[in-house]
Design brief:
alpha/beta, TIM Barrel, 8-stranded parallel β-sheet, 10 helices
């Protein structure tokens, strides 16, 4: 599965936006595939669980789950089983997004379960200190996202550049194999370029693409900034 992911990486989190439900999720994934082919930049999407199989069946875009639970087979009604996510064809999963925050114990357990079933792990953190605390779990990727900037259109790479550079330094001083992404308020190619200059190896975006008037043009703008 790792071979489907290259860096720099753009991950588009579709959240539960009405613009990204059902066939609209498939359409956004198809846009990501087209932009990726045009620019050579790896772009992945993270749809709702109910849309995973239809998106995976319809495009070659790498797909991440928005969440998994650290459970196994059995009596876990309402949980998201890691084996089921892997079986759907996902390449990885987000873990502890700010809108689905987990404690350190559950983050560690979720990383371990994801690794067991062959899913790449993108652990979201809100501070440099949290990134430093998560790094010993050895996830594949840590995404730094100050929650107060998510959805604001004010990019962390400009508003708080020290958070991005600090997270990169803190995480990679502990484990240089962990990739660091930057999220929160990323809406332009300039924002992406700033994030990469600060040491991030990609971005995690959402409303800036999903709710854009022209998602194709917006995603192309972001990808072209990566490929410069």
């Amino acid at each position: 599965m790792e071979s489907k992911i290259k860096f720099p990486l753009i991950v588009v989190n579709l959240k539960t936006y009405v613009e990204a439900m059902g066939e609209r999720a498939v359409k956004l994934a198809a846009i990501a595939e087209t932009v990726s082919k045009r620019t050579g930049v790896c772009i992945a999407v993270a749809p709702q669980t109910v849309d995973l199989r239809s998106v995976i069946a319809s495009t070659k875009t790498p797909v991440f789950s928005q969440h998994i639970d650290s459970v196994g087979y059995g009596k876990y009604t309402g949980h998201t089983l890691p084996e089921a996510i892997a079986d759907s064809g996902c390449v990885g999963t987000l873990i502890s997004h700010s809108e689905r925050r987990l404690g350190l114990d559950l983050i560690e357990a979720s990383v371990e379960r994801a690794r067991e079933v062959g899913l790449l792990q993108v652990v979201c953190v809100d501070t440099v200190e949290k990134g430093r605390a998560v790094a010993p779990f050895k996830p594949n990727i840590i995404a730094i996202e100050p929650p107060e900037l998510i959805g604001t259109g004010t990019p962390v790479s400009k508003a708080r550049p020290e958070v991005v550079s600090g997270a990169v330094e803190a995480v990679q001083s502990l484990d240089p194999n962990i990739k660091v992404l930057c999220g929160a308020g990323i809406t332009s190619g300039e924002d992406v370029a700033s994030a990469l200059k600060l040491g991030a190896e990609g971005v995690l975006v959402a409303s800036g693409v999903v709710k854009a008037d022209d998602p194709y043009s917006k995603l192309l703008e972001l990808a072209e900034a990566v490929s410069l």
